[in-house]
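Re: beginner question about structure tokens

> Can someone show what the tokenized structure looks like for a real chain? I only ever see the sequence side.

Sure, here's an example I had lying around. Input first:
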Amino acid sequence: MGSARFLAVELLERTTQDGSYSNLLLDKYLAGSDLSPMDKKLCSQLYYGVLERRLTLDHILRSYSKKPPEKLDSVIRNILHLGLYQLAYCEKIPDRAAVNESVLLAKQFKKASASGFVNAVLRSFLRDEKQIQLPKDKWKAMEVQYSAPAELIRTVVKEHGKEFAEAFFADTLKTPPSTIRFNSLRGSMTEDETKELQAIPFKCLDNAYTISCADVRQSRAFAEGRFHVQDLSSQLCCAILDPKPGDTVLDLCAAPGGKSFTIAERMENTGTVLAFDLHEHRAQLIRSGAQRLGISCITARTGDAAVFDADMPLADRILCDVPCSGFGVIRRKPEIKYKKLKEFEKLPELQYAILENAANYIKPGGTLVYSTCTILRAENRAVVEKFLQAHPDFELVPLTEFGFYEGYATFSVLYDNCDGFFAARLRKRG
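And the corresponding structure tokens:
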């Protein structure tokens, strides 16, 4: 029963029942399994594939099941999702294997009475030559095509336009790039490291690379602190902050530390970087990462970014990478897109509180960057505009060097294959 498919169904159950983050859950389960490397790869492919295509798979199910998907036993629903995903999207898996293994899974999960139903649904889909008929309604059609709720698609189209939305949602169904930041404190990347990591540099930013190495954290270069894993958009956020050697910098929502590390490297490991998180175990992640990278100018502490701290020093630069809905990183955490927008309605209040509190700590003439990993206007531009109305002593600084001609920037797959990300650069007048 310890097969890749069995584990994939277990993971899908945990994700749907507990609301766990897919990346953390997968890492935990694979680390504790005795699957071969090939089976671990298959498990990952099937697990993420079903998560990415859940609404599309439910749409297929409705054509072959008298019961709507939401009324089915959750295990059977996930087994059917797994089988349909293999039939529709896995060209290297024989159709017969996809059907037979799905029937077997029903029996292994002690759902033998439903095994005939599983077989019938999958074989009916095969008889129809695996055709997926899109609904006539354009929003429902996009929902099925991109496996994203129509409500979310409409919002993104309204705020960013159809071209942006189509590119963004199509990208959420692809494998995201693995991106690293090379540690400039350790010198330049060697030819051997380039080959080991299969590294390709980005044109828009120094020391940023996409890599194809299967298990990057097992590489010699990682153990030697030669780089850390960080998406390009996150690195660009640090470039927007533009910290200088000798600065005092506050990273108010810092864990697990990627931005703090990049900030410290750009400062040539001089000055002071104070990095904060609510929880001590996450602050410890920052300390451990800094030690591996040979960075000594970072001090990681616990602290609530929304609560004023009278002992906080005035800073030259402050990064507020605030908690957010995470809709910009759907391609890495596909389960996020199925959440209702109303679940995040109160987030802008917290985001604004953090930004307003950060304003207490900046020196006259200092730079304050507000950022999120979402693309929703309510959490991004609306928060900054509210802040600027209440704080006339701050001004937007244009981001022309990044191709954005205001103080706002929304990064996405259209910007060198970035994750979805927002940043605004503010300066305190003085």
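Each token stands for a local structural state, so reading them left to right follows the chain. The domain at 232-428 is CATH 3.40.50.150 (Rossmann fold).
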